[in-house]
Amino acid sequence: MGKSTKPVIAPKKGKLRSVQKRPALRKSQKWITVPYTRDKSAVSPRGQRKDQIKWKRTLPELLAASDRDIVRMLIADKLLPDWSGRQCPRCCQGTLSKLMPDKRSGALKHRCSAKKCHVWMNPHHLHPLFTEGQGPEAKSLQHQAALLLLKLHRIQQSTTHMLMDANHKSLEDLERKLCKLRQNFVEKKEREILLGSGTAWQDVEADEATFDKKNISKSLEFKHLIKSKDSTTMWEQWAGIVQRGRPESLILRRLTPKITVKRAPGPGAIRKVEWRNMATELLKDRKVILHTDSAKSYKLRVPGVIHDRVVHCKKRVKVNGKMQWKAPHYVKVVKHTLPTKNGKKPKTVYVKAGTQVIDRCWRFLKSRVQLNQHTKAGSQLLRAKLRAAQYEYWYRNADLWVKTGELCSW
Fold first, then answer.
1. Between the CA atoms of 140, 143, 149 and 150, what dihedral angle is there, to the nearest 10 degrees?
2. 228: exposed, middle or buried (C-beta count within 10 Å: 0-12, 13-18, 19+)?
3. Are 161 and 171 in contact (CB under 8 A)?
4. What is the CA radius of gyration of the chain?
């Protein structure tokens, strides 16, 4: 077929209109003036580049250091304790000397002064991260410190193996030790966290997330949890609470959801029984404005807590006799009336309801938890990795090399 012969009519002069882009939703003045995080005193600038945060040590500095210099570096960074003048951990009688070369190997070691001991002890003896060894498989302190620095920079294990010529088992062992060390610190430090100040009303977000699932139909360890032949899937679900503007206030609690069928999309929202215990312990009488999604469990009334919610899924509603889809509201401006005492005039405050902070927190944790055959739902290693990721979230804008030194000294 040939081309169309329909004439093209040119627009008249003065009638041509320019097409401009318009926003899908015009923000009101109230939306612009109300900030999402009202307390920004502890918040670092968003989008801060990682190369602008200079760490205390670099890889060439660790690899080029001598045996005596690397020990001095690690002692100054609190990664190694100074054993000079301390009691010998082997005989508990003698005193350890300063670093001196061992006559047999030439390595720098401490020597016990007890006549019946005289043991030569390495400076990284009984260390939670570094290992001791003899023979061709033994690694120097420079090599182990470089592996730790690469691990803290989140370099992939395959890349570290190629760069440093390290066995994958040693890298996995270092990661497991670091996760266990962080887990012990986080579980103890988490008990000291207080949400809200108790005087001024603060914004707190709560949500739950699922990390993995496991088929327990053939597992003898979880056989007592199976109540029917169809319900054989166990989920790894955690609940989190964080105060806006305070990343170091993140609190995680492991949940025990019901065992579901194989094709279930998920374990569902947090149960009311578990949320009641969590809210009573952490939020009661703390003057908190709680922001959650529309799960029914969060409707529980807690003294000293004002609750608002947002809708994360679209709904089908009837408008003028026709069914239409209603878009979800991820963030919206809400007006709250704060309770007062002694008959004073009640105060009102405008806040933005939403769970953007806790949602980004889940993305942060999931990007740092690598699932494999050893980290399945219900495993101890998966819990340790989650706690280690929580530790990184607390100190995400800090020098993790210095923080690891403080962790080892702790």
1. -150
2. exposed
3. yes
4. 29
Tokens of 56: 């205390």
346: exposed, middle or buried (Cβ count in 10 Å: 0-12, 13-18, 19+): exposed
Residue 250 token pair: 């993140």
| 344: CB partners within 8 A, 6+ apart | none
Q: Residue 310 and residue 114: Cα distance in Å, rounded? A: 69
**Residues 203-218, mean pLDDT to the nearest whole number:** 89
User: What is the rounded (10 degree) CA torsion for 154, 158, 162, 164?
Assistant: 40
Q: What's the CA angle centered on 213, arms 207 and 214, to 5 degrees?
A: 150
What's the pLDDT at 241? Answer: 95
Q: Are 233 and 227 in contact (CB under 8 A)?
A: no
- Shortest CA distance to 61 belongs to which of 72, 52, 70? 70
Amino acid at 239: A
Residue-wise pLDDT tens digits, 7-39: 555 555 555 555 666 666 678 888 888 888 887
CA distance 113 to 123: 16
* pLDDT per position as a tens digit, 92-124: 888 888 888 887 777 788 888 888 888 888 888
Q: Name, in order, each residue with C-beta under 8 angstroms of 155's C-beta and a sequence gap of 6 or more.
A: 163
Give CA 396 to chain center in angstroms: 9
Summarize the confidence of residues 259-268 as an average pLDDT.
88
How far from 143 is each of 147, 166, 252, CA to CA, in Å?
A: 6, 9, 35
Q: Which two tokens stand for residue 248?
A: 């170091």
pLDDT of 6 above 70: no
Neighbours of 275 (CB within 10 A): 24
Q: Which two tokens stand for residue 346?
A: 């009640």
Pull the structure tokens for residue 109.
Answer: 């070691």
pLDDT at residue 328, rounded to an integer: 86
Q: What are the contacts of 3-11 at 24+ separation with CB within 8 A? A: none
Say which residues have a Cβ less than 8 Å from residue 207's Cβ, sequence separation at least 6. Answer: 239, 240, 292, 293, 355, 358, 359, 362
373-377's contacts with Cβ under 8 Å and 24+ in sequence apart are: 375/212, 376/212, 376/214, 377/211, 377/212, 377/213, 377/214, 377/234, 377/235, 377/236
